[in-house]
Amino acid sequence: MATVLLAGGAGYIGSHTALELLNAGYEVVVADNYANSSPEAIRRVEKLTGKPVKLYEADIRDNAALRRIFAENRIDAVIHFAGLKAVGESVAKPLMYYRNNIDTTLSLLEEMAAAGVKNIIFSSSATVYGEANPVPYTETMPRGTCSNPYGWTKSMMEQIFEDAQKADPALSVILLRYFNPIGAHESGMIGEDPQGIPNNLMPYVTQVAVGRRECLTIFGKDYPTPDGTCLRDYIHVVDLAKGHVKAIDYILQHDGLEIFNLGTGTPYSVTDIVETFQRVNGVEVKHVYGERRAGDLPASYANADKALRLLGWKTEKTLDDMCRDSWNWQRQNPNGYRE
Ligand code: NAD
Ligand code: WQD
Asked: pTM score, two decimals?
């Protein structure tokens, strides 16, 4: 069976993908510098699957470290999760974001070329659709104007992949545009473990529910949406991880560059999330309505037809599943991977 290198694979989406790849019979190698993760996530993946993962502590910008990994393993494909992802922090520290996110991509592409590795899947984001495209987003729409440096790094990296693939048609590239991943593995053993104050909605909700934070502020209730709060395409991280397995199956059989939205196609509001979370879990999430957050769009959701057509992938989990599994993880691990 083929071997897949997960760059940044100890993180939230990487650890869930490692588990699904192992369950599908792939060999998995993970390289991560733990900038926003813990090796404990991979230990738990090994426990859950009963299979080993070769784990390297390495910075993906470090060409020499990558050279060693490619020399020591017969890698068939790479999934590039490694990156910094906190939108607010990217506004405050743009150079750190450009340096980390773009350099990881350049180093990976350089060392893949040197080692003759021809398949790469990249963690892109719905944020590249920018502010002007109408919803639902389809992959043929042009990339737009991003509202923050994090988004721009994703947009620029997509361009880098397109140029690299054009220059080397033997290189196969898949750009996966994730919508809003939430939820956790149903065991509650792995999940999202953000450092500091969460930027994203669901970890904030679970931390309020578990008593780590006082109260959720819902950003804006005067948007042109049915209940006045923003609409997003929330996707269960296990469905997302299974999308990566389908993308690996596909890239090992096809050349060229493809872009896929990974979303459900169904938008939910912030109020829907809070109400569903309270209902399925029987816990209270104290919340207040506040000002809009700068840069938020009223609505962002996918047309996910292409992934169904070409990859044979569609989401299976419901919003109830997402809310129940997020809480199951948080309740069992109130401080994440830290004891
Ligand atoms: P995460 O922070 O949990 O995972 C990213 C991993 O990359 C972490 O383990 C981190 O330690 C590692 N990393 C960062 N810089 C590194 C470097 N220089 N060298 C080695 N490792 C490095 O985030 P995630 O939610 O799992 O996201 C994975 C990818 O998907 C990221 O690229 C992110 O931008 C992208 N993405 C995430 C979302 C989301 O909402 N979670 C949405 C769209 C796209
Ligand atoms: C969701 C909704 C907020 C927190 C971001 C990135 C995007 C992608 C996913 C990586 C919005 C509201 C949030 C809170 C709230 N990441 N909210 N109170 O902004 O859709 O997307 O993460 O690529 O690029 O921009 O996700 O989880 O931050 O917000 O009311 O405390 O929840 O206003 O409507 P977002 P989010």
From this structure: 0.99
